[in-house]
Specification:
Helix content: 25-40%
Strand content: 25-35%
Bound molecules: S-adenosylmethionine
Radius of gyration: 19 Å
Number of strands: 7
Structural class: alpha/beta
CATH class: Alpha Beta
Order of helices and strands: HHEHEHEEHEHHEHHHE
Oligomer: single chain
Length: 241
Amino acid sequence: MRDDNLQALHAPYADLLRAALDLATPAGARVAVDMGCGPGLKAGWLAGRMAAGGLLLGVDIDRAAVAAAARQRPGGWLVADARDMPMRAACAEICWCVAALDLFESPHLALSEARRMLCPGGTLVVAAATQLWARPRRWPAALYAAWAGQAMPSPADGLGDGMADSLVAAGFADVTLWAYLLDPPGIGLARAALPLAGWEWLAARLDGLLSPDERAACAEAEALATPDPLPLLLVAVGAAL
Ligand SMILES: C[S@@+](CC[C@H](N)C(=O)[O-])C[C@H]1O[C@@H](n2cnc3c(N)ncnc32)[C@H](O)[C@@H]1O
């Protein structure tokens, strides 16, 4: 895909994607790998999470994309297959795989390579836009106000379980998954994530923060939620042990 096509495709969702990746990526890595980096359009985002002077290594199978990335910014830009990464074991603290995992011929082999490259305690971050059947809840405004400042919720209804399971199968621990509505764009992380969380899960964390009427309105929103095929952003993180 040409650089400008990819940029145009991701542009409406760039703020959400960047915020979701920032949230998922521990700060301060000295070495990070961007697997399936493409033309390096997100390299600045990853570099921004790293320690000053850290080494960013981008890997892609497409020679033209790697050349474009190398023109964008300094770093180590390598042409290679994600199934056979040209790095030694335990060399990186962060590995990103953004909008790429489901394009690899063997996602499992690529995840195993990510696991091999990461040092103990290192973090893999996988992000993918996808279309899934989901039940968005029309929460009352009071729920968003009460949730302000709390951690991003986990999705309900098994959304994204396939992605989380693939990280576990590749040997990652402490796997956490977030799901965000991609439409409408520009609503921010909490408003994109909360409609995909279930009332039972939220209610346990909002004890004392909502009135009985507001809780009843939330329970009604849960009961009325119906499934629709929706564009979603899934982000999973896993720890290498
Ligand atoms: C949709 S692009 C995403 C690029 C970049 N991560 C981004 O978000 O801007 C997917 C990239 O995966 C790369 N890719 C596909 N199969 C690959 C493989 N087996 N090994 C490495 N890269 C691969 C493609 O060449 C392409 O650049």
